[in-house]
Structures are given as structure tokens and as C-alpha cells.
Amino acid sequence: MPQHKSGRSRITPAAAAALAMLAAIAVVAAACGGGKDNSDDALTVGGMNETVIMDNMQFEPGNLQVPVGATVTFTNRDSATHDAQADDESWETDNLENGDSEAVTFDAAGEWLYKCTIHPAMKARITAVEPAAWAESND
Ligand SMILES: [Cu+2]
After folding, report:
1. How far, in Å, CA of 103 to CA of 52, rounded?
2. How far is the CA of 59 from the centre of ligand 1 (A)?
3. Which residue ranges form the domains of the chain, and what is each CATH number?
4. Which residue from 9, 39, 100, 127 has the least number of CB within 10 angstroms?
């Protein structure tokens, strides 16, 4: 039997500190990695004034259709700070804390996938359609 060499396999204080730091980073990374992609949820057909709630690391409704000219108000009800930014960066909100809201008006037809830049896995979709198309999908 090889003689146990005292200290050889013990964790040094520096190593322990490094491990503690890695554990802390892992916790933060897990928090930052949160978020759910709701962009392919069943379509919600909305009107001229709609609200998208940010809560539980999700946008709700996640797949919203509005008529051209509609205003969508993003409201954060989560403990985490969120924003909303179109993937093509044609529109975005400021960082919204719990209780904050910001309105975005959709003046042109289009379809936008968007995300929270703080939690990029938190994704959703907004489609703005001409009123005739909106009425059709609303039948
Ligand atoms: Cu977020």
C-alpha cells in the first residue's frame, strides 16, 4: 500500500476559492440562461391595443397577431428585468423592471421574432397584418 502523503490530495484554500467562484458562476449562468420560446404558441388574434406580459421568463401571449397600426404594451410582472427586441432590431423596448411598461406601435405589416436581450432564450412573435387580413383570421 502506498503511504498516504498528507496534503497531496487535499483542496488548497486557493482551489477551494476557485471552486466556490465556479459554483457561483454556474448559478448566475443558470439564471441568465432562463427563458422560454413561446413564438410558436397557438396564435392569439388581438386588436388595436394589446398587452404582452413578461413573467416567469416568458412573453405572454407568445404569438400575437395585431392589425397594422396597433399598439402593443410590454409590461414586466417578473422579478427579473426584461426587455423586448426584434431580431431584425427594427424595434425594441428599454430595460423594464417589475411594474414597468413600454408601448410599441406597429405601423407597417410584418412579422417579427423578438427576444429579451438579457435572457435570449426568452422569445416570442408579433405579426402585424392589414385590417382585411386581420378580420379574416379573426372569423
Ligand atoms: Cu429577460
Report:
1. 10
2. 9
3. 44-137 (2.60.40.420)
4. 9
